[in-house]
Amino acid sequence: MAELSIPDVGKALADLVRQVPPGRVTTYRALAEALGDPGTARFVGQWLMRSEARDLPVHRVVHASGDVGRFAFGTWEEKAAQLREEGVRVVGRKVDPLPKFFFWDFQTDRPLAALREEQQELAQRVLLEPLPEPKRVAGLDVSYTDSTAVAAYVLSTPDGEVLDFVTAQVPARFPYIPTYLTYRELPAYLAVIERAREAGLGADVLLVDGNGILHPRRIGVASHLGVLLDHPTVGVAKRRLCGQVNTAGMVVGEWRPVVLEGETVGAAVRTGRNRTLFVSPGHRADLPSAVELVLGLIREHTLPEPLKWAHDLATESAKVLK
User: Fold this and answer.
1) Is the pLDDT of residue 21 over 80?
2) pTM attached to this predicted model
3) Is 187 left (phi over 0), alpha (psi -120 to 50) or beta?
4) DSSP string, 63-76
5) How confident is the model at residue 1, as a pLDDT?
6) SS3 string of 112-168?
7) Structural domains of the chain in order of their starting residue, each with its CATH number
8) Considering just the CA atoms, what is the radius of gyration of the chain in Å?
9) Could you tell me the pLDDT band of residue 170, with boundaries at 50, 70 and 90?
10) Using CB atoms within 10 A of its CB, is residue 164 exposed (0-12), middle (13-18) or buried (19+)?
11) pLDDT at 322
C-alpha cells in the first residue's frame, strides 16, 4: 500500500504563532504565507478560534488593516488591552502604525508549499484514457468525528447491485483546507482500500466522493489516489470546486462540460430534478467513460449506487463514534 508523509499543519501553525514576541503583532495572511500558501488566511483565522489555540498568544494576530479583530477567548477590548500591556500602540480597534510593530521573520519549512509541489508533480502523472469495462465498481466516502475519519467502501456491479462493504477508521489529523482536502481524506481511503483488498473485495474502478482533475492544480483526491495506486479512479463531487459551466435548463441524464482556464476538466451531470453532480476523471479514465459509468450507476437515487451507500455507511458509522 502507498506510503504517505503528511505534515502536522496545526502544530506548524501553533509554532509560528509562538514565534511572535511580546510587543509585536503579525497578520493572518503573514501566517498563511509562512505556512506556504497566502490563500489559506481564512483557514488560519478559523484555526486560531479553536480550543487548540487557547494557550497560544493569539492576541498578537491582527488583520492586515491593523484592526485587532475577533478574540476567541475574550472580547476585542481585552485583546487590545493585552497588546497595550505588551507595548503595542492600539488606537481604538487598530494597531497604529502597523508596520512599526509588524513581525514577519518566521522560521518555517512552509509545509503547504511542499504539499503543493507534490500535487503539481503528481498531476503530471495522471493518465487520461478510456476506463476499462468494469466487472466490479467500488464507491468510497468518508465522514468525520472531531478526531476520527471513518471511510466506507461499497462494492457493486456496474449496474449498481451492491455486493459487499467494509469500513475503516483512522485518526483525522489534517485539517480541512480548500484544495488540500486530499491530505485529510487519503489516509482513510487507503486504510479502507487495504481492508477491502484483504477481504477479497477488489474493484476494477474506484468512484471517489471528491474531485479528480476538476481541481485548480488538476489533482483532486480521486486523481491523487489513482496515481498512488496506479488504478482507475473517477471523482464524483456534490459541489463544484472550480471551473465554469452553465447548468440552466438541464434535464435528468444530461451533462455539460466544466471548463477551467480553457480546458475541459469535468462534467456537470444532472442525476435528479434538484441534483447536479460534478464528475471528473481521476486516473486511467477519461471524461466520456467516467460520465457513462456514473450515469449507468444511477438507479433509485441521485448518487451512483455504490457512492450513495458508502455515504450513508460512513455517516452512520461516524455517528456511532460520537
Assistant:
1) yes
2) 0.91
3) alpha
4) -TTSB----TTS-H
5) 46
6) HHHHHHHHHHHHCCCCCCCCCCCCCEEEEEEEECCCEEEEEEEEECCCCCEEEEEEE
7) 9-109 (1.10.10.10), 124-321 (3.30.2170.10)
8) 22
9) very high
10) middle
11) 66
